[in-house]
Amino acid sequence: MAEFQWPWEYTFPPFFTLQPHEETRQQQLKVWTDLFLKYLRHTNRFTLSIGDQNSPLFHNEALKRRLSPELVLAILGELERSGHANPLDKRRQEWQVYWFTLEEYGNMVYDWVQETGQTNTICTLYEIASGENTSHLDFYGVDEAVLLSALRLLEEKGRCELIEMDGSHGVKFF
Q1: How many domains does the chain have?
Q2: What angle, rounded to 10 degrees, do the helices at 144-156 and 102-115 form?
Q3: Which of 65, 81, 97 is at the close of a domain?
Q4: 8-state DSSP, 14
Q5: Residue 99 contacts residue 93 (beta carbons within 8 Å)
Q6: Range of the domain at 87
Q7: How, if at all, do strands 168-173 and 65-66 pair?
Q8: Annotated Gene Ontology MF terms?
Q9: CA distance 108 to 97
């Protein structure tokens, strides 16, 4: 895996402090949300813990700067508003983060199903997320919990039906 390319802002000490000026803060949060999504995709991660203060995402060792939990929550709040994250606990300490929104994941999967003629067939979540037929697609490698959430949205729209057997999930597309 290639080394992650940090944006120039990552080497700018004030970037690690929540900015008081509204316009500056909004720009700062936009850069941070983009950085979170790119970094998590690069590292193939879908969950974040606010307590993970040693992650390079939260801590620039060279600058000796670290994101405050307040700033991390502000960033995750922005990701939540844009449909790219959801808290996994009531204390909002553990988060599931999506490289694409759940709706985008659902649409990508449904487009693939239609393009490959798999309507009215049953697929396993493994086939969709990790199968050789999807290795070239943006949703390849998606976390099963994220995929399941995206498929639930498709199910609400009547495009599929989730099937659970012995703790495993399958899905039939319409």
Answers
A1: 2
A2: 80
A3: 97
A4: G
A5: no
A6: 8-97
A7: unpaired
A8: protein homodimerization activity; structural molecule activity
A9: 17
> DSSP class of residue 3?
P
41 and 82 both lie in a single domain: yes
In sequence order, the 6+-apart residues with CB closer than 8 A to the CB of 80 are 86, 87
Residue 88 tokens read as: 């996994």
DSSP for 25-79, written as a single string: HHHHHHHHHHHHHHHHHHTT--EEETT-TTSTTTEETTTTEE--HHHHHHHHHHH
Which among 80, 97, 114 is the end of a domain?
97
Q: C-alpha distances in angstroms, 153 versus 41, 86, 101, 131?
A: 22, 15, 11, 22
Residues 76/37, Cβ–Cβ less than 8 Å: no
Return the C-alpha torsion angle 137, 87, 81, 19, nearest 10.
Answer: -110
Confirm whether 1 is domain-assigned: no
Residues sharing a CB contact under 8 Å with residue 125, sequence separation 6 or more, in sequence order = 144, 147, 148, 151, 168, 169, 170, 171
pLDDT tens readout for residues 30-44: 999 999 999 999 999
Residue 152: pLDDT over 80:
yes
Shared domain for 93 and 124, answered yes or no, is no
Count of CB atoms within 10 A of residue 51's CB? 12
At residue 86, does pLDDT exceed 90? yes
